[in-house]
Write a structure and sequence with these properties.
alpha/beta, Rossmann fold, globular
Amino acid sequence: MTKEQEFFSDLSTVETHIEETLSSRIPIGFPETPPSASMGHISTVDPDCKTVDKDSKKTAMRLDLACGNNKREGFVGVDISLDTQADYLCNLDEYPWRLRKVTRNEDGSVKEVEFEAGKVIEDNSVYEIHCSHFIEHVADIKAFMEEIHRILIPGGRVTFYAPYYSSIRAMQDFTHKRFISEATFLYFNKGWMDANKLHHYGVKCNFAILSTKFLFEAEWNTRADDAKEWARKHTPNSVSDIEVVLQAIKETSEKHESKDETETLGPTDIWRMGAAIIPDGIKAGDTVAPEKEQANDAH
């Protein structure tokens, strides 16, 4: 056997060992073999996940966090900058989140901004959150995820888009704080954390991972599913972005201690801008229709 053959033989052994090690840490309910790469979905329904509580408030906010200038239709835009489509200003790295109302003219220009401290978003007052290309910028991802969990109603959903960890787009921006992969969100699933004995991390939120989708670079779209799956694991820059849909797991009667006793902002305060009637029949296993996301930034 030549030295080159020995090298690749050793490399294959190492890759096999890594895959066996990772598979031994797959959480309960996480599929060992993902569906076809062209579908791009991995569904993980936590056994503790509840359906949306129909006795909750019948109107709830839908927030587009760090909306930039690509605010999602039907959502209330939240951003730190006035040079965006934001309906409310908020520093998403400061907790609890305080919203300052932005009043705009018909042409979209800023007419007036609330310069008070802002109102804290109520617990259990948001039905759906959209967050595109921001989670990789967050200073404290644990606090960020716990704040999302706090404001979501039981069964409420959050959809994240981010550059995939193996893409140069995840590395090129110096304002990115971390890489995002499908495994990132396991640390906010109680079942997986319990199975891996990570209670000392002190995570105070629990999300079911409803689906994961990988958005491949154009040259891979016509390739076979097994080739895509191999490329996702072994070829940098084959996947550009990842889409992950989570659902908040919490007891309906759960009471959150207020982090601040100042005035809070509830769904009735901004129902004119993106309030949503909670659909009947939403449950943990529902498929979220995928769609190509337009990034809020160039990353």
